[in-house]
Amino acid sequence: MRDFAVSGVVVLAAEPGTGKTTLMNLLTEAIQEGTDFLGAFKVTQGPVLLIQGDEPEEFAEPKYARQDLRVQWDVMYPEEALNIEHLTKLVTSKKYVAIGVDSLTTVLCTAEQGTLDQGIVHLLYELNRAAVNAGVLVYMTAHLNKPPKDGNGCRRQRKSIEWADISGISTISAAVQDCWGLTNLGDKFSLHALGKRNIQVGTTWWLHRDAETYSWWLADSQDQQLPAERIKLSDRIISYVKEHGFNTTAAIATALKSDPEWTRICCCDLLDQGLLQRRKQSLNGKAQRGRPSYVYGLDDFSCVTHTPPSNNSSVHRW
Fold first, then answer.
1. Domain of 293?
2. What is the pLDDT of residue 152?
3. Are 263 and 237 within 8 A, CB to CB?
4. pTM confidence score
5. Are 160 and 44 part of one and the same domain?
């Protein structure tokens, strides 16, 4: 699920009542059943454990029913905080491909150690390292600090979430893989990436939620390329470079009549996945200042059509 979470500890931070628990429930079902999360994000199917620390069973079960979920996953309702040894054992057992934790505060914190203690950061760091090594996704919700007051003495409503808004010390950001913020903007919700390792900072998905069924879905209008469209463009890029060889992202976008920025993102994703190679662009021995220019392609393509550059093009084709 490269557009939302990969592995390790991924945090979903939101104000109380925003709906982060029901969104987490949908993610849990999607992974357990192997269906697309929010109808768009591909998941790795497998058994899931949900550790529900924010709501007792008598409150959580009605939400499952309201959401019409197939509750085939394992659920744990801990009466006290879980220690790092227990959590790490659950992760390294590889019994589960994903473990949900609702929430970081109620499941991991104790009366002696809260979110403001450095010990929580060390706990998260160790848990994250174990999860990454095991290839397990640990997704957990997080509470926020109270927002500052406005001139009328009322709490301001956040339009976005920053690392400093998350309850706890700022070094929590160094202990997890990625983090998402969820805010209610009235007619829609903003699910935006605070980023870290796998998700680019500023990536935003616009969501809608139904108050009756707690259903969530992607809004029709998005600022990002939808995952299905990105897969199609990635396939077209690979097919193109197999035929034409190495080229710049701008030239590939022109040839495919695709958005230049989305083409660049797809090429970078394919490079990260090892599905494309990258070379510095040849400038016929001339010195170059500033950021180097790269071309993308495959070293093992079997059929290459060398197309000479047009008179008004500075692109060097390999």
1. 227-297
2. 76
3. yes
4. 0.81
5. yes
Assigned token pair, 15 = 């104000």
Residue segments in the chain with a per-residue pLDDT below the cut of 70: 109-119, 169-171, 282-291, 300-318
Helix (H) or strand (E) segment spanning residue 227: helix 227-244
Type and span of the H or E element at 9: strand 8-14
DSSP state of 155: B
Token code pair at residue 156: 């301001």
Instruction: Choose among 44, 41, 99, 48: nearest CA to 72.
Output: 48
Question: Does residue 87 sit in helix, strand or coil?
Answer: helix
Query: Is there a single domain that holds both residue 37 and residue 176?
Result: yes
- pLDDT (tens digit per residue) in 116-138: 566 678 888 999 999 999 999 99
pLDDT at residue 123, rounded to an integer:
85
**CA 150 centroid distance within chain:** 32
Q: Which amino acid is at 25?
A: N
* H or E segment to which residue 99 belongs: strand 98-102
Whether residues 181 and 262 fall in one domain: no
C-alpha span between 20 and 144 (Å, rounded): 12
> What local confidence, expressed as pLDDT, does residue 287 receive?
54
The CATH code of the domain that includes 115 is 3.40.50.300
Number of domains in the chain: 2
What pLDDT was estimated at residue 313? 36
Note whether 131 and 91 are within 8 A (CB).
yes
| Shared-domain flag, residues 133 and 200 | yes
The pLDDT, as a whole number, for residue 315 is: 33
d(C-alpha 181, C-alpha 201), whole Å? 11
Q: Do 139 and 270 belong together in one domain? A: no
Please report whether residue 310 resides in a domain: no
Beta bridge partners of 207: 189, 218
Based on DSSP, count helices (H) and strands (E) in the chain, helices before strands: 8, 11
Q: Phi and psi for 79 in degrees, rounded to 5?
A: -90, -10
For residue 268, give the CATH number of its domain: 1.10.10.10
